[in-house]
């Protein structure tokens, strides 16, 4: 990876982390900064154009209401990577512990801001500001989750899909053509078992929307 590519990934990952987070006045104030930083790289601004325009032109309360509706009230666009692999099963605790272990291994205090450590904006910010190599390894490990998030956003015509696709494009390998291809590649869908149930084979489960 060239130095220029690495810098572009840092800028794109941090912008995606911010734009996928709950919108507040601080995020809106960062729009000019994101535009300027993304504008340094050919084509980097395009995946962010619609979301940045929305942040600039939409009332903040409306932005927040839309975000809660799309990202907080259901699982269709769940931004927690391990949801798509482990759902709410007891195994997920170990997975979240693995994320924390990666963060601790960087010798940098990572503020989770009250979020679970597999929260996509947090992983992106970690990659952009702390350790790109370790961050990309986490993203590649959960590439199917990223792809399923992207397809869910596309299905509901949400412009955030383009940002997630840009993240996928920075990782090794081409994106699967559709959700079924992701399922075949990964061998799972988002499990729905409750904590404490017996282990299961996720390959036997169809993907279920929330």
Sum this structure up briefly.
By secondary structure, this protein is mainly alpha-helical. Helix content is 58%, strand content 0%. Pfam families: Nitrate_red_del (PF02613).
Q: Which keywords apply here?
A:
TorD-like, mainly alpha, globular, 210 residues, 12 helices
Helix-strand blueprint:
Layout: H1 3-19, H2 25-29, H3 31-38, H4 49-57, H5 60-72, H6 83-86, H7 92-105, H8 120-129, H9 132-141, H10 143-155, H11 160-169, H12 179-186
The count of DSSP E runs of length 2 or more, i.e. the number of strands, is 0
- SSE-based structural type: mainly alpha
CATH topology: TorD-like
Identify the CATH architecture. Answer: Orthogonal Bundle
Order of helices and strands: HHHHHHHHHHHH
Helix count, per DSSP? 12
Distance between the termini: 38 Å
% residues in beta strands: under 5%
CATH class label: Mainly Alpha
The percentage helix is: 55-70%
The pLDDT mean sits at 84
* Overall 3D form: globular
- Give the biggest beta sheet: none
